[in-house]
Design a protein that fits this description.
By secondary structure, this protein is of the alpha/beta class. The chain has 14 helices and 23 strands. Helix 1 crosses helix 2 and helix 6 crosses helix 7. The protein is globular and about 60 Å long.
């Protein structure tokens, strides 16, 4: 199979159209059922056609550029809706399913915060949302099942610097906030991911990550589309209910790239029995990325030693770092080189490769790799907002902190997004950092 890398596609709209025209019959995405089989699959051509139908059905409902919440419940329905909104000229705003009070509150909060004109979701999504809205005005809902047979319409053709979507942060460090992502930003970040992960036309992707989260959307959906390769999808609940499903899918579909936050690797070690481990074949897994949470040496070592006998290559473990404010990806390891670790409290020492006997969290920090192509990562004194100079005694301390704690702020990257207009910028002090010290700080 030869993938068509999207050199001539400058936007997500052009990207899907390119895939539909040049690889139309090839598999784009598959949703994996609980028993491991494919419950639904869609080709690039079918995905493009569904998006066009949705765009036709939505034509004229609101001005172009309006924000629309899109519910990330059923994976393929979400992807169709996301691109249908893009084709119609709207700005998609991914949001969690309304299955509990937290989800309902987030949908309501996103709607108010970004002035969304509507919520796009399935009938089941709408029915789950309604009970939690007794005391608040309910937003307008566009029901996905009612949009299957839209009339033909002129497809929106955005420019590279137009807004592609609004990505709300995970809220792991601050309250969730919206980040404006342009087409140029996301296409640039997809290129950086492909380069840093060593992706090519032989890559096969699998993800269970939430599609309303940046790592699930930009990594699990848009990266396979960027590469023109198959993407296999599970829902977060499918994974949490039975973590073995994730690893079974990797073996069954010969997946080469998949990953998750640190806790997921612990969950697999703790909840998959030796008998069920023996049924796994993880020999195809080349990039097992780990991000979104603090990296634990003990977690990586346990996972590698536990699943090594079942085909897993410990060097496939790929620590990485990213944040929605920088589209997604900022830094990562080198493929099949294994994680680097550094003793705590010894910033002057050189990092070494992870060893299988690294079993005490208190002993080691885990590195997040190197900055992605196109990124400079500055080490900044938060009190002065100046980049620390080469050789500065404080620089070694902050360099150690950056290596260990993954605190970084990208500078000069081609895909640095902006905050939603009218909202205060995230990490304002770091955003205003000035280069200082002659040569200008350190590259992490």
């Amino acid at each position: 199979m030869t993938a068509v890398f999207p050199l001539e596609a400058g936007t997500l709209v052009e990207l899907l159209a390119l895939r539909a025209s040049k690889q139309g019959s090839r598999l784009a995405f598959s949703h994996i059922a609980n028993d491991g089989s494919v419950s639904e699959a869609v080709s690039f051509h079918a995905l493009d056609r569904s998006a066009r139908n949705i765009a036709g059905a939505l034509a004229g409902r609101a001005p172009r550029g309006s924000r629309v919440i899109v519910i990330a419940s059923a994976p393929i329905r979400f992807i169709e809706g996301f691109f249908g909104l893009l084709y119609a000229g709207f700005v998609p705003v991914p949001a969690p399913p309304p299955g509990n009070d937290v989800g309902r509150l987030r949908i309501a909060a996103y709607t108010a915060d970004c002035d969304a004109v509507a919520v796009l979701g399935t009938l089941a999504d709408h029915q789950m949302f309604a009970p939690g809205q007794d005391s608040n005005p309910s937003p307008v809902w566009w029901i996905r099942e009612e949009l299957a047979d839209g009339r033909s319409c002129e497809i929106n053709q955005p420019l590279a610097d137009d807004i592609a979507f609004l990505q709300y942060t995970s809220g792991s460090t601050l309250a969730p906030r919206g980040v404006v992502v342009t087409h140029r930003m996301v296409m640039s970040n997809e290129w950086a991911i492909a380069q840093s992960f060593g992706h090519d036309e032989t890559t096969i992707f699998c993800s269970w990550l939430p599609l309303f989260h940046d790592m699930g959307l930009i990594g699990g959906v848009l990266q396979p589309l960027y590469l023109g390769i198959p993407g296999y999808l599970l829902t977060p609940m499918q994974f949490l209910a039975r973590p073995q499903r994730w690893l079974e899918a990797i073996g069954r579909y010969r997946v080469t790239t998949s990953g998750a936050p640190n806790f997921a690797y612990d969950l697999c070690v703790e909840q998959i029995s030796p008998e069920n481990r023996a049924k796994l074949d993880l020999s195809s897994w080349r990039v097992a990325f780990n991000g979104s949470e603090p990296l634990r040496c003990r977690t990586l070592a346990r996972f590698g030693s536990t699943f090594g006998p079942h085909g897993f290559n410990e060097n496939a473990l790929y620590p990485c770092y990213g944040l929605a404010e920088s589209t997604l990806f900022v830094a990562g390891s080198r493929p099949l080189r294994g994680p680097l670790v550094l003793p705590r409290g010894k910033p002057g020492e050189m990092p070494t490769r992870l060893q299988s006997d690294c079993d005490l969290d208190s002993d080691m920090h885990v590195g997040s790799g190197m900055p992605a192509p196109g990124f400079d990562v500055l080490i900044v004194d938060p009190s002065t907002r100046r980049a620390l100079a080469e050789g500065d005694a404080a620089a070694a301390h902050h360099r150690f902190r950056l290596f260990a704690a993954q605190h970084a702020w990208p500078r000069g990257a081609p895909d640095r997004p902006s905050r939603r207009p009218g909202r205060p910028p995230a990490r304002k002090a770091m955003a205003g950092a000035r280069q200082g010290g002659g040569a200008g700080g350190r590259r992490a």
